Each structure stands twice: as structure tokens, then as C-alpha cells.
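Hi,

I'm pasting everything inline rather than attaching a file, because the server keeps stripping attachments. The sequence lines come first, and each chain or strand is labelled.
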Amino acid sequence: MIRHFLRMLIVGVVILSSIYQSVSYLIATKELGSLEQDPVTIWENKFIKLKNALPAEVKTVGYLADWDIQTIGYSNGDQHGEYVLVQYVLSPVIAVRGIEQEWIIGNLTPKAYKKWWSTTRGEYEVTFFKHNLYLIHKIEQ
Amino acid sequence: MTLLSVAIFLIPIIIGTLFVHLLWNNNDPKILLLKFALGIGTGIGLTSLLYFMFLFTHQAWFLFLLLGILFLLGLITLRNWKPLSLSKRTPLGRVQKLLLLILAVIIIVDLATFVSTSLRRPHGAWDSWAVWNRTARFIYRGGEDWQRIFSAEFYWLFHADYPLLVPLTNAWGWDILNFETLRIPMIQSGIYLFGSGLLLFSALFVFRSIGTASLATIVLMALPDFVVIGSSQLADIPLAIFIAATAILFSLYSKYRQPQMMALAGITTALAAWTKNEGLIFLAASLAGLLVICYKDKQAWGLAAWYFGGIALPILIVVCYRFILAPPGDLLPSGWNEIWQHTTDLSRYVITLKAFAGVFLNISGWGYSAGYNALSFFLYYLVWRRKDTNLWSRGLLAVVVMLVIQLIAYFAIYILTPHDLEWHLTFSLDRILLHIYPTVLFVLFSITEDPENSFPLKEPFALGRGTR
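And the predicted assembly:
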């Protein structure tokens, strides 16, 4: 009798708990973000003009962001996240950290850009885009 | 575009189902459902391997190749078709109807959750855009330069060494549509999510009863972590499917004694290794399972031959990919010195054990329900355990051995990881334990009583008990 009661109880708990958490999670998906535009799509849109400006034959670019500029503060998590997003958006072009490549994508706050520009050596041609994005072309190899 | 994307996935699913059907010739409707569930992963997995080989040809007629294979398998199936063996039907009992109804509600809620998640995060989660979908983009957009996915220039976070089942499936989908739509990774994700539910349901329907199958599937499909990961275009649920499929096939062999199942188990094991690096670990676990099955069995050599016959070609492709094309992985320490340091550092064991205990005891992860942790599974087992003397078939023992090996290997990876241990545990542990979750449920509900036989019913027996 007790065993039978326990069996009913545990199945009841499993079922009720299952229904509760399924519905709760469905409701919680609202917190995942807006139905209109997600952050990745926003990044894709930010890069449309820059990607068009990049010569078609370029297969690898450099990637310069705030974390590369000395004395500029940054959030490590945000910088990693943005780098991953930039690589995803640029596919099939590989974005390598640093400025060794002829073409470099700059993702720099105005302060970081100014700092980089003031300390950099060599000749660069910079095209400015919205959202703190720069297409940097190293003229001297 | 959504319907078209769904439609193109039907081709590999039907190919997989016909392939499984031809290897395992049984026309019981219940078994046909299980063969369909096994065919989903098998078909999509084999298609991705085929597309991998096809990429080297730089041709553009993959759709015709798939249709040709579909036509050929369809023709062979029709030639060998036998009428459905409709066993005596027993009407559904009240408990069974109730459990099926609750399962239907859970599935509908999950569908809504899947759609909501997919619309709000159309590119998936972090690992989707860092690894799986990024690789797919490189393959599709890269054209003849697709092998740049293996470039050593990638930062380690992009995991250029990860296996290719999921990215290649996206890439051939776009290739056939000639258009890069987000619907393809979304639908692939959904197929694996709901396919895993169907696999567990159909397997327990064959092994146990419709009530047990429904209850187990309710538990699986109500776990928020499982649904959210399954809706996020990641490779964890596909891996879970292949692990569960291998486990089910080992158990099926114990029940039906048809050696062809070992060939299928070999294929699903290779596909696990083609899905994620953890699938390579599963290769060792599956071989251990094979040993358990073959131990003192009269047909041992024959069974091993079937298994290796199934695994040989796909694993050869995986091995070539892993050791010739892919760059080295980032999860193993760089040298013996580091391995020695990590293995002799007791604090790493304490941290890892705490994290495992946290997940198993539901302190963190695995959703937010009291109903989903090792303790409640144990309690369920205590209350519902079967008293049959032949409860533990050789197949089920093999499955338990595989699960234990997989868990020990995961533990060992954390001990050895060159990354920050706490970071690694935080961002992966609850996700990788989902790899074995459907298989754990399969074992749990295989060794417990059927609910319809414990509650007062007008109908004394469950549908499907006749074949037990």
C-alpha cells in the first residue's frame, strides 16, 4: 500500500514538475532577446559596408581592438565576444589578432583609435565606418 | 524557405530509415517507428560524411547523388518488401492515454519553445557562431578554398579541429538550396532535438511499454537545459543521439540476437566521433561495450566482424580528417610535464568533484526542477524497480559500462585541461552531461516497472507487451 502510494506520488511529482518547467521555460524564452533583431544580426548589418570595401582577394585580415592598445581599459569578456562575432561575420575571411596583415579590421573605441594612431609607425590608409569600425590598409609592407 | 529547408532534410532521413530497414529486416510497426528514429541520425550523419568526400571533387551535383541513393535504396526496399506484421492490438489503457496526452502537451510546449528560441537567437548560441555555423560558412562561402577551415591561423576559441557533422550538414543544405538561409541550421537543430525524443520513445516502446516510453520521453523533453541546448544549433544533442542510438542497438542485439545491429552500432559510434571530440572518447566506450556483448558469446567473432564492418569506412574518414587535415586540438596539455602537474594536483580533483556533485545533486545546471538529478533518479528506481531475475541483459550491462567510461573520461579531461579549470567547468559541464542524458533515461526506464501495470486499470496489459 505504501509502495503504491509512493509510486503514485513520484510519478505525479515527475509529471507536474515536467509540465511546470516546460511552460516556465517557454515563458522564459522572452528573456533571450527581441523577436525583431538579435545581437548577431545587428553585427552582420554593422559590417555590410566594411565587407564590401574589403578587396575580394583578401583571405586573411588582421584584427585590432581595444585589448591590443596599451593603457586602454576593456572588458575581457566583451572583447572576446566581439572578436568571435567579427570572425563569424567576416567568414570566409580569417581575422587574425594583430597588425601583421596588409588589411586590418579595427574595432576601436575613439579613445583607443586615437591612442593607436598616435603611437603607430608605418604608413596606413584608414577608412572610417560607423559603429567604431575601421578598415586599415598597410601601405608599406 | 522554411518548408523547402524541411523538405531537403527528408532526403537523408528517408535514406537513413531505408538503410536501417534493409540491415534490420523486421516489419512490426513498433519496430518500424524505432527504425525511423534510428534512421534520422544515421541518414543525416552518413550524408555529411558523403558530402565531405564530395567536397574534394569540387562538383555541384550533390542533390542528384542523394536522389540517386534514395532511388536505389527505395527500389531495393520495394523489391524486398514484406507486408506489415500487425500483432494483436490491445486498446490503450487510461494511464497510457493520460501519459500520451501529457507527452503531447510537453511536445507542443517544446515546439513553441524551439520556435521562440530560434526566432530570438537565429544564429544560435556562442559556440554556434564561434564554431559550428562559422565552419559551415567557411565551407559554403569558401568554395574551392573550403579547406581553409583547417587553417592554423584560427584563434583557439574557434576550435578549427572540431569534427564536421553539424557544419557539413548546414553546408550541404545551403549548397542544395544554393542560398545561405538560417532556416537550415535551425531545422537541423530541431530535427535532432525532437529526434532524440522519438528515439527514446520508440526504443522504450519496443523494450517496455507505451506508458514507460511516454513517461521517459516526458522527463527527457521537459528538461529546460535539453530543450535550450537542442534549440541552439550546437552539436551536443546530435552527439547525445548517436550515443543513445549505439546504446539502444546494443540492447536490441541482446533482445533480438540479430548481428546486423552490431553493424549499425558501429556506424552510430563512428558518427558520434564525427560529431564532437567527445565522440572520439565514446569510440573507446563503445569498444568496451562491444567487449561486454562479446564476452563468452558463441558468436563473438561474428559480432565483432559486423561491428567493425559497420564502423570501418566512416571511422577511416574520421581518422583521416582528424590526423591528416585538422589542426591539433586545444583540450590536451602541451607536454608530459603539464600532464604530470595536473594529474598530481589534488585541488583539481576537489574542484572537479565539487562541480560534478553540484550538477548531479542539482545544485546548479540540469534545469531548475527537483525532479531531475541523480538523487531523484535513485529514488524513482527504488520505488519503481523491477524484480525480474533477468533484468540486466548483456546489452544493458554494456550500456552501463559505456556510460561509466564516458563519465570517467569527461572527469579526466577536466583534470588535464590546459584551460582555466573553473572556467572550463562553468561553460561546459552541464552541457556535456546532456550527451549521456537520453541514455541514462533509457537505462533507468528499462529497469523499472511500467506505470500502466501498477495503477488500477480496466485493461490489464499494456499495448506492446506481447513482444517482451
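Chain A touches chain B through 44 residues (CB under 8 Å).

If the labels don't parse on your end, tell me and I'll reformat.
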